[in-house]
Design a protein that fits this description.
- This protein is of the alpha/beta class.
- The chain contains six helices and five strands.
- It has helices at 50-63, 74-80, 82-95, 130-151, 159-162, 168-177; strands spanning 11-17, 26-32, 66-72, 103-107, 119-122.
- The chain has a five-stranded mixed beta sheet with strand order 3-2-1-4-5, with helices on both faces.
- A hairpin with an 8-residue loop joins β1 and β2.
- α1 (50-63) crosses α4 (130-151) and α2 crosses α3.
- The model has no long low-confidence stretch (mean pLDDT 94).
């Protein structure tokens, strides 16, 4: 894994979590590391256990020059679509940084200009660059905690386990109980079926 895409300027890495979920917000994070930083444990959040992600989150928050985690609600996702909501959540995270980056790297292949700062989208960036992988870890752990919290009020959907993803038990619960205030109504499994 590479530490930086470029080493001339302070660089922020961005990633999101929860795009494919049927319920809950999409979360995004932005992370700026010191220019000489390296951490061999950081990896794409999907490749790590929950315990390892939480341990690394502490290290990332301790070591980062600056970081921010933000979200777009399910209502915002329904209003503007998941791609635009994901990018807006990343912009919100960049807004929350205490250090203004002079370059931004983003996981994936879509982004919108942010404050005239140069940027680069990178497919599978969360497995290639430290700051993007760190952002993926923060976005994933904060989102998982959010879903576990709202699970307490809506246990029938088993969000504590499925985190809002379209698992068989989640889909069956939507059919049985209908949708909650946290479901994304523009996603096909959450739309009422005509009899």
């Amino acid at each position: 894994m590479q530490a930086f895409f470029q080493e001339q300027y302070p660089e922020a890495g961005c990633d999101e979590a929860g795009r494919g979920c049927l319920a809950g917000p999409v979360f995004a994070a932005a992370v700026v590391f010191p220019i000489d930083y390296f951490n061999s444990g950081i990896n794409d959040s999907k490749q790590l256990s929950e315990k390892k992600r939480l341990s690394l989150r502490q290290e990332i928050e301790r070591d980062a020059v600056s970081f921010c985690v933000s979200q777009c609600s399910n209502e915002e996702i329904d209003r503007m679509n998941i791609l635009n909501a994901s990018i807006l959540a990343m912009h919100r995270s960049l807004n929350g940084l205490s250090v203004i980056p002079k370059f931004i790297i983003i996981d994936g292949n879509k982004f919108k200009p942010y404050n005239n700062i140069p940027y680069q989208t990178i497919v599978k960036g969360d497995s290639l660059y430290l700051s993007i992988a760190a952002a993926s870890i923060l976005a994933k752990t904060y989102r998982d905690e959010f879903m576990e919290k709202i699970h307490e009020d809506y246990p029938m959907y088993n969000w504590k386990k499925n985190k809002g993803y379209p698992t068989k038990d989640h889909r069956e619960a939507i059919v049985k109980f209908g949708v909650s205030p946290f479901h994304r109504l523009t996603y096909e499994p959450c739309q009422p079926k005509l009899l």
